[in-house]
Amino acid sequence: MRQKKNTKIAELTKALMKDKDITDVADLQSVLKEMLKSGVETLLEAELDDELGYDRYDRNSEKNNYRNGKSAKRVKTDLGEINLEVPRDRNGDFEPQIVPKHSTDISAIEDKVISMYGRGMSQRDISNHIEDIYGMPLSAQSISRMTDKIIPLVEEWQNRPLEIAYPFVFMDAIHYKVKQNNRIVSKAAYVVVGINMDGMKDVLGIWIGENETSKFWLKVLTDLKNRGVQQVTIFSIDGLSGFEQAIKATFPESVVQRCIIHQIRSSTRYVSYKYIKELTRDLKSVYQSPNEESGYQMLLEFEEKWGLQYPQCIKSWKDNWPVLSPFFEYSSNIRKIMYTTNIIENLNRQYRKVTKGKAIFPTDTSLIKALYLATENATQKWSQRQRNWDQIINELSIIHN
User: Fold this and answer.
1) For a surface tag, which of 120, 220, 346, 386 has the fewest beta carbons within 10 Å of its beta carbon?
2) For residues 233 and 164, is the Cβ–Cβ distance under 8 A?
3) For 172, phi and psi rounded to 5 degrees?
4) At what angle do helices 2-17 and 123-134 cross, to 10 degrees?
């Protein structure tokens, strides 16, 4: 079916372009409107062929429904208004999809392209899909120009004022390959998610920089302050060296909690597969202790058992204890939120899902466009506040006021 449509459209395009004297933009627009009109009408005819079960002029005696002329319809398009001839059937059963009944606007090509781009479709897939709908493929340049229209929205979103206080802020980076100066380099997308005073999650921003460094995180934190953030009660972060110092330089009163999951991964990196289950099970007795004192005591017992075999694992937990242990001060409601960066890791999984078809991004701009659109899609589901939020906010106010 698609091959037949493409053949018809290719023939029409060739005929329409023949002997055309295009000297300016107006001439080009006029030709494109003719091409769009012919392409849409060809698709309408093909749709009716499918509906009736036979091609035009082929009267199949087994069928009891036939073509019944055409009706005129004026519709809006991205190129302006065009007059269409919509084919009809005798029984009135034909429901065209390309131009639905009672619809007079088919100008949403750009919206469709942006939506597909935001869901991770490749430029080739987008072009094929648009060709199936409208009968005209889109070049990579056309798709890029269409998605570039969201850049002002991205800039406005990145610079929007933020709230004064956030009880929780989660910070993490996700890495991508990007072309830069004719080379392919690794770039980090620095992502910050906050939970505001109403218990609602919000992506505070995405910044594209070189491989993850505490220096760039300091720049991100300074940007948050410049956009209005004055107080963050608890930061949840990964194990990047210098991260805590960057936070304390900008938000000295904040509690810094290193993600326990990140800590487990990094400290058990070189543990033999033979012992990993037993060792991580013993580690649970450390971070699932009821308070810091018993937690540290369990760490010492853990050291007695595993210290000789895996001294670097023990050293990592002891060296990082000041940023691993703050969650012990709080109830289980708060611990569940702050002791891992799961909130932001779940978002990163959404990013990976929609960018898996793009192994390399041509520019930083193309990367931020994709992540912004993925953010818009992901956060549409963030409509509920955190569980037990009234208890959480009351506990935080008592401890930190």
Assistant:
1) 346
2) no
3) -155, 165
4) 80
Please give the structure tokens belonging to residue 87.
């084919």
What are phi and psi for residue 83, nearest 5 degrees?
Answer: -100, 125
Spatial distance between the Cα atoms of 195 and 189, rounded to a whole number of angstroms:
20
User: Mean of the pLDDT values across residues 216-237?
Assistant: 96
CA distances (Å), 141 to each of 78, 201, 244, 381, 384, in order?
17, 36, 43, 32, 39
pLDDT in tens, 199-211: 999 999 999 998 7
Q: Which of 276, 248, 279, 243 has its CA nearest to residue 259?
A: 243
Produce one character per residue of 51-64: b if its CB has 16 or more CB atoms within 10 Å, e if not: bbeeeeeeeeeeee
Backbone angles phi, psi at 55, to 5 degrees: -75, 165
**When comparing pLDDT for 204 and 23, which is higher?**
204
* Tokens 């409509």, located at residue: 383
Pairing of strands 201-209, 183-195: antiparallel
Measuring CA to CA, which residue among 240, 220, 229 is closest to residue 168?
229
Q: Which tens digit of pLDDT belongs to each residue from 85-94?
A: 888 888 877 7
